[in-house]
Design brief:
4 helices, single chain, mainly alpha
Length: about 170
Amino acid sequence: MNDKNYVRRNYIAIITIISLIIVIGGWIFTYYSLNKLKESDRGTFGDMFGGINSLFSGLAFCGIIISIIMQSEELKLQREEIRQNREELKGSRLAQEQQGISLHRQAENLKISAKLSALNTLVSYYTEKANMEKDSNKFSSRYAGIQELQKAEKYVIDIENILNEKNK
């Protein structure tokens, strides 16, 4: 709990208790003071407080007007805060959209990278196989080596096509 709220609640409790003691003490004092008087004197004594009653009614009305003004100012502040929250949410939404686009691009780049890696592995495999066939003395092996080099060239062309698509 916040210390300011705790102190504030204590002040409110103390003021309430003191107010109750004063009001109850006033009733008891009035009862014993007026109990000795005649009924007509009691009425005259009560009429004497009519002006004070009007004063407190006017003060209560002013208090209501002040509270209405304070509430309208509070509503203005709430509206401004809601407007600012909307702007922040709009900015957050735009940032999330940009993040989504970036993630999509990153996924596409990873996909292309995986394709290039696979094609590079195939090129290496067929090039190595062609070199092994080339070293062989048999005619059929040399022909097979040429076929392996053609396959490797085909994969190199695929790699170049993927890189060209990426650069577009």
